[in-house]
Amino acid sequence: MVVGLRMEEKIRDDFQLPIIDLLSSKSNRSATSKQIVKACEEYGFFKVINHGVPHHIITQMEEEAHKFFSKPLSEKQRAGPANPYGYGCKNIGLKGDMGEVEYLLLQTNPHFITSLLHNSNKYISQDSNNFRCAVIGYVEAVRELACEVLDLIGEGLGGAYPPSSHFTGLIRDVESDCVLRLNHYPPCDDVRIGFGEHTDPQMLTLLRSNGVEGLEISLEEGVWVPVKPHPESAFCVNVGDVLKVMTNERFVSVKHRVVMKSYKARRSMAYFAAPPLDATITCNSHSHNNPNPNPIYRSFTWGEYKKATYSCRLGDVTARLNHFKMPLSPLPLPED
Ligand SMILES: O=C(O)CCC(=O)C(=O)O
Q: Where in this chain does the record put each Fe2OG dioxygenase domain (predicted)?
């Protein structure tokens, strides 16, 4: 049985995402930054290896996530509902999207994590100190990686863009709105939508998975490309809507989804790097490399865009972005 897939879809499995070796940025930073910019322009997705996130930090987070999802449903539900933070099962977001997924959505601010574990009515872990240390350690390490990638992007985009520190400043800000989502897709003996098609609204996403396939990206309408989970030590990085807007669509924010067809459970951890809610997102069109000389979007705050995201269904990507597009100039009146 195939649940939730459209009949007319095509699968293209002859494509591999670019793999960027971050170690090579030590000897040739400008070549690495150009490779990343090219990947962001062409595919909106790439993998990074030699990324510097320590193995034990990843393992510790994976173990805590595994412990959480292995608990009986009634216990996991004590960490819910996801409104938006906390435990969610099958219901994704607030607009009725469904998927064969369980998740735990966390704000990454250490104060939020501590107060979620100790002062809220959501119960996540018996050993909350271990859980807290794992999340804080993981978030710190992946934020560094996100900042390194954003710095390389800023350098690769060249002088016409805000300096690299502008991108990373938004993520390092104590008020930044970065979130971590731990996902668990149960095994199945048919084909099921685990996470419906969507783009990520934030700036940049760093995704780790346990090596079980399922992630697919759509580089053209109706065609899906499975992302091979190799090499296992890699992070998958993707451009979110905010970075697409900031580069005036020089970068693409690409639709992706998870389709489960495995007897093994897929687990993933997605870190979404986002600015503070009141940060202004402005698109930069003043670059001779930019194919779009006029700004496509008006300025807006991340908070406004986040609200628009929560008010749409997952797949309504065009609708939520259109809301922030510059009005089209009126057509000239016909001459007499
Ligand atoms: O689990 C995955 O591979 C993708 C997850 C995802 O797209 C998300 O959490 O937004």
A: 175-275
